[in-house]
Amino acid sequence: MKYQVSPEKGISDFFFSNIITDSSPSHVHSHMEFIYVIKGAVTVTISDKTYSLSEGEAAISMPYEVHSYEYEKDSRAFVLACPPEYLSEYRRMLSGKVFVPPTVKYSDVNRILIENIIDENFEDDLKKKALLYCTVSDFLNSSELADSPVFEYDVYRKAIVYISENFKENITLEKTALYVGVTPFHLSRVLNSNGKRGFSEILNSLRVYEARKLLENKNLPISEIAMEAGFGSIRNFNRIFQKHYGCKPCEIKNSSGNA
């Protein structure tokens, strides 16, 4: 999941906001992102720590923090991401910092704002900006600001950035290690430490996530979708997709009406 900022575009192009119901793999970007659980429960991993969110709770990831979401069945969450420039008064205070803990029980004001944003089909940019300020206010009142972690986590973050930006290409552990500036052995150890997922699982998660979006939104042959998502063979794609989602790619394609 990547967000690009262009000065020629309006505010709407800077904000990503939506209702999310599916888990998303580890990703990283230059935006701030927060998630609010509307229904059910979501497990959020930020950096190398995992948090369980229930209805009414929110979590925030700061720029370049690696994060992922795992949804329980029938769960729904509101996600908003935008560049830190929209908090111009607090940008210096927040630069290079993370919230500890990065979770909070949302205030009534924020819940009402989210309801209004959803009712207006995510088109009211002023309310989105108000929500961003109110969210940061909640975190400043309930969490501490700490320096962003470095050392081994920086290796992990750089690797996730590289994989996130190049997963559609023929990348390998060796190519990723070369980009990060460590040996393949060292990178493999970092990626697999503390219960985190290894290189292949991270890469495949991003690829099947991309493939599912294509299956749901584009009327393309499954073989073409597999190649566009970065898979080298349709057989490998089918096997990994079914492992992640518990169904065949053709089932998703048929249910979305793109068959």
Give structural attributes.
about 260 residues; alpha+beta; 5-stranded antiparallel β-sheet; 4-stranded antiparallel β-sheet; about 20% strand
Descriptive report:
- The protein is α+β, with helices and mostly antiparallel strands and 259 residues long.
- The protein is 44% helix and 22% strand.
- It contains 11 helices and 11 strands.
- It has helices spanning 11-14, 91-94, 108-119, 125-142, 152-166, 173-180, 184-192, 199-217, 222-228, 234-245, 249-255, and strands at 16-20, 24-27, 32-39, 41-46, 49-54, 57-61, 67-71, 76-82, 97-100, 103-105, 144-147.
- It has a 5-stranded antiparallel sheet.
- A hairpin with a 2-residue loop joins strand 4 (41-46) and strand 5 (49-54).
- Helix 3 (108-119) runs antiparallel to helix 4 and helix 5 packs across helix 6.
- The relative contact order is 0.11.
- Residues 1-12 have low confidence and may be disordered.
Sequence-ordered SSE layout with sheet pairings:
Blueprint lengths: L10 H4 L1 E5 L3 E4 L4 E8 L1 E6 L2 E6 L2 E5 L5 E5 L4 E7 L8 H4 L2 E4 L2 E3 L2 H12 L5 H18 L1 E4 L4 H15 L6 H8 L3 H9 L6 H19 L4 H7 L5 H12 L3 H7 L4
Antiparallel strand pairs: 1-8, 2-7, 3-6, 3-8, 4-5, 4-7, 6-10, 9-11
